[in-house]
Design a protein that fits this description.
The protein has helices at 10-32, 38-48, 50-71, 78-84. Helix 2 crosses helix 3. The chain is 74% helix and 0% strand. By secondary structure, it is mainly alpha-helical.
């Protein structure tokens, strides 16, 4: 899939992309360490990968956009959100 389908919200599409990337990373790690526990895998992912750092940056940026939009006395339009991103 090259882009977000028109009938899917961007937020949902982003979630699917993140889920796929995490699955890729975790499956690769399981191939290297087949006896690793669920906790060990997730600890490695969130503390030892560049992807986890990128996801945190994306989360922080999205939180800034949402905070700014909610701090206004109205709901933000898509144009407001695009201008802040």
């Amino acid at each position: 899939m090259r882009e977000c389908p028109p009938d899917v919200m961007r937020e949902q599409f982003l979630r699917w992309v993140v889920d796929d990337l995490m699955a890729f990373y975790l499956e690769a790690r399981m191939a290297q360490y087949p006896r690793a526990s669920h906790q060990e895998l997730y600890a490695w992912f969130w503390s030892g990968t560049a992807l986890a750092g990128l996801l945190r940056l994306i989360r922080d940026r999205l939180n800034q956009v949402v905070t700014v939009c909610w701090s206004r006395s109205r709901l933000a339009s898509p144009a407001d959100v695009a201008r802040l991103a």
